[in-house]
Amino acid sequence: DAEDVVFTFEALGDPSIASPITSAWSIDEIIEDVRADDATTVVFTLSRPDPAFLEKLTIGIVPEHLLAGEDLTSSDFGRAPVGTGPYRFVEIAAGESMTFEANPDHHRGAPNIDRVIYRFLGDENARAAALQEGSVDAAVLPPQVAATFADEDTFQTIEIASASVRQMTLPTTNPVLAEPEVRRAISLGVDRQAILDGVEGGAGALAFTPFIEGMPFQDPSIEVPFDPQEAQLLLDDAGWVPGDDGIRERGGERLSFTAMYLPNQTADQELSLAFRSDMDAIGIEVEVEAVDSPANEERFDTDAWVHGVGLPYDPDIVLYTRYHSKFADDGDPGTNRARTNDPAIDEALDTGRTTLDPDERADAYRDLQAALVEDGSYLHLVSRGVTVVLSSDIGGLEVQPMGSPHAFPRGLSWNLESWTLDR
């Protein structure tokens, strides 16, 4: 009820809990007071205008009667949550699965399917094999793998629009990547269309910023051409001269860096290898390496990293901590990983999160897109589509755009209570 909402937001404002949402959404800055007027009415008093505030109210609410007086940083609630959704949490088997059962008291009625199990299968080949043998009913697969199920009547394939952009951080704390000319040459020298067609199987779209087609404030006029000749001219002018092996050098230093990806992300590996080939063509040496988390976090200041940024939400919620310079040195590996420090980016982000004028916000986020391309410390490559293969026995599906290829529930199983299973 309303008291639980108050309890949740007061907890978010508690510095001893140090929730990452608190800083990312500026909860501690913008909420002066939150109170319950009755069981169904909550009143927020804000310290400043916040155009993204309504979307911040989508955060999950926790029950005060189970958590009052608990240390919320170590409570067992995180592994045995209680909510008000159509399914009740049953158990989690670490690294293996998570089980839910239907909630018969749900306010919209009991779900059609009594029991749901999410299995943790990071490897796409393992997911495909599990589908074929019938041990799972639905799985996210790369388009090339999903195509192998296309002619089988026992399966159905659904393509989901994704707001997830694959981006590569080019850390400005790396001496080579600190040069704007080098970062600009990299952006000009990478063939995004070839990555989209080859690595992504044509599913998705080109991306030059985190704003993609159909998303609020996207500026379709902002593009980066594939121009390896211009890239080489930029490097020539910056004094980087091809060596005997074709890799550029300057003052005895090779134009070289490492690009990391997560080991279980096969598509990111293929993307990194395609990127390496493009860079080799303009005289930049890129070592591609699989580095798991959290080991990769220790190398964000020196090595590039391929990962995603999802934006089906208000831009302020996702982008402020990613790109603003105030998060460049905060010690949090989850925020400004490229250590970007650009006044134009900061100004656009600050304006976008404080003005209530729609036109002014639109101008600010257009300025942000232009500034991100100019700065180049975040290399945006493609928007990754999501392909899900399901048993033909499943019905009641309704598709929504998803924010990330990891976010299967947002795109498809958001209405899981309405699914049917005909077997």
Short description:
The protein is of the alpha+beta class. The protein has helices at residues 2-12, 20-24, 27-30, 53-56, 64-67, 124-133, 143-146, 180-189, 192-199, 228-237, 266-281, 315-323, 343-352, 358-375, 408-411, and strands at residues 31-38, 41-46, 87-93, 97-102, 115-119, 138-141, 155-160, 164-169, 204-206, 241-242, 248-250, 253-254, 256-261, 285-290, 304-310, 378-384, 386-391, 394-395, 420-421.
What's the shape? globular
Strand order of the largest sheet: 9-16-8-15-13-14
Oligomeric state, counting identical vs distinct chains: single chain
Strand segment tally:
19
End-to-end Cα distance: 38 Å
Question: Biggest β-sheet, characterized?
Answer: 6 strands, mixed
